[in-house]
Amino acid sequence: MESLIIPVLILALVGAGVLLAAKAIGRRAAKVQPGSEPESPRDPVELARTAAARLDQEQHRRLYALIAQGQAMAAIKLYFESTGEGLRASRDAVGALAAHPQPFRPPASEPAPADDEDDTPQRFPYRYRAIASKGDVTREVSSNMLNDEIYGRIRTLARSGDTEAAATALTRHSDISMKQALEFIALLDD
Predict the structure, then answer these.
(1) Angstrom distance (rounded) from CA 53 to CA 43
(2) Residue 151 · residue 120 · CB < 8 Å
(3) pLDDT score recorded for residue 78
(4) What does the pLDDT read at residue 30?
(5) Which of 129, 130, 186, 187 registers the highest number of CB atoms within 10 A of its CB?
(6) Burial class (CB in 10 A: 0-12, 13-18, 19+), 131
């Protein structure tokens, strides 16, 4: 009988260990379920759309720059820090975004910028260079408030003879003085 006590004790300890492990796993699963994030969509295209919607424009641009440079770990880290999602969800989201590129779409609550008015210049994420020359004289205006459309309007005003309006528009969309703008506009007259 003494020979059976030791195996029964070992069996009881193993059983208690299994029960404790099962309870710990059950508690961990119970903690994750109520506050867990919604399950990500299984469709990779839908996952990419959802992931892109969680990013603002600057984060979207930076994430795709990292993907284009082949820096997957940095892209995952950026997505993880930007959205606060888990590491696995961030990895899946970046993978879906890389496989199915998504354009940036502003949230529906933001109104689209009005392109009609050029009274209030907007800043663009790039610097636009406008160059005018006549003979040996060359002038350049560089600004992040200019683009092809605005510069085209300025050139049209200059060619139609309204140099004052063209110079005013140029000073409004750049950081040059009226005198410099008039010199630049004078070089545009063909």
Answers:
(1) 16
(2) no
(3) 93
(4) 67
(5) 130
(6) exposed
pTM of the model: 0.39
What pLDDT digit, counting tens, does each position of 36-91 carry? 455 545 788 899 989 999 999 899 889 888 988 889 999 999 999 999 999 999 99
| 3-state DSSP assignment of residue 134 | strand
Look at residue 89 in the predicted model and tell me its pLDDT. 93
Q: Which residue has the tokens 């910028």?
A: 113
Q: Measure the CA–CA gap between 163 and 111, rounded to whole angstroms.
A: 34
**What residue spans define the domains of the chain?**
40-104, 128-188
What angle do the packed helices 57-68 and 87-99 form, to 10 degrees?
A: 70
- Name the strand (E) or helix (H) holding 168: helix 163-172
User: Which residue stretches of the chain have pLDDT < 50?
Assistant: 35-36, 40, 116
**Three-state DSSP string of 85-102:** CCHHHHHHHHHHHHHCCC
189: tokens are: 């007259």
Put residue 189 in one of left, alpha, beta given phi > 0 → left and psi -120 to 50 → alpha: beta
